[in-house]
Structure formats: structure tokens, C-alpha cells
Amino acid sequence: MKPFADYETTQAAGEFEKLPKGAYEVKIEQAKVTTYTGKDGSTFEKLEIAFDIDKGEYAGYYRRNLESQQQEDKKWKGVLRIYVPKDDGSEKDQWTKRKFKAIIQAIEDSNPGYHWDWNETGLKGKIVGCIFQWKEWAYNGKSGWFANPYNFIDVAKVRSGEFKLPDDKPLPKDQKPVDINISAEDDSEEDLPF
Prior knowledge:
It is a single chain. By secondary structure, this protein is α+β, with helices and mostly antiparallel strands. 18% of the residues lie in helices and 29% in strands. The protein is globular. Strands 3-2-1-4-5 form a 5-stranded antiparallel sheet. The chain has 3 helices and 5 strands. It starts with 21 loop residues before the first strand and ends in a 34-residue tail after the last helix.
């Protein structure tokens, strides 16, 4: 075969740089509220905050990821989704309110002079710190780990290193792919299709 140009630097299909778990300075690209339907038919809302890494070695990580996707339905992967409180007085809703407030407080603390005005589109362009945890995935019998957006924190804590990384999040045992054990006795090449 005749070699083609840039073979050594060409990225293989499905290959992309992995983002290490850690804390990064990110810039919000957009924010919107999306309504979901639960398994029981009830609806709930999430504030979806899309962002990209703004500083350091991984700056522009999610933009590069989007550009490298080959399928038609490309998806922006840098998104933190938080439940919007229902204000129904339940214990779960109280937890949701505290989590929501902590996210918004991190954005306010990271952007002096900004105050949350209940307009999610006003979050665009804001800087904030984001902590990522390792999260396990499984799909079509394969599994692996990826850095998942976990929480927003004051960007000053990212810059100073004053943060604690969350524990890794493995899949429950019933969601892990089944290991296939091929015995050494079955190394016959007779049934190969070529």
C-alpha cells in the first residue's frame, strides 16, 4: 500500500483524548430549562448548563469533542444538569433547593457583581469552577470510565487547589456487562471466516 499523508497524527475512529477527573475553570456556553417525563409519567424540570473548559491544558475540550464526533446527531458533552425545585415542601425538594442554591452561589461567587435573577439565559459567558468525578459506563457489552461533571464550585477554589474530589461512581453490579471467558483450549483457527 502507498502511505497516506498525516497517518501518524490522524486520530483513529472512536479515539479521543480523555479528560482526567479533577477541577477545571469553565465558561458557560448556554443554559436552559428542560422538562422530562419520569417512569411514572410525572414531569420534572432540570436546568441544563452547557460549558467548556476555559483555561489550562484542556481548554476547548468539549468543542474538540463535538468536532470529532462522526455521527449525524452530534451532542455537546459538557453539561451539568440540576433538578429545578418543585417547591412542594417535600424532603426531596428541600435537598433539591439546597443543591440548586449551591450551584447558583458558586456562579455568583465566581463572577463578582453578578446576581442570579431567575433568567437562565443570563448565565451565558459566566466563569465557574467545575469538579469532575470518574463515572463508569456500559454500552453494547463494553464498559469504561469517563470524567463526569459533578458540581460547580467557586472558581477561586479551583485556582488555589482548595477542593476535594468526589469518590468514583461505579455502575451497580446488575448493570455491568457480563465477562466472557474464552478458555485456552478453544484456540482453534479452523472456524475463522477468512
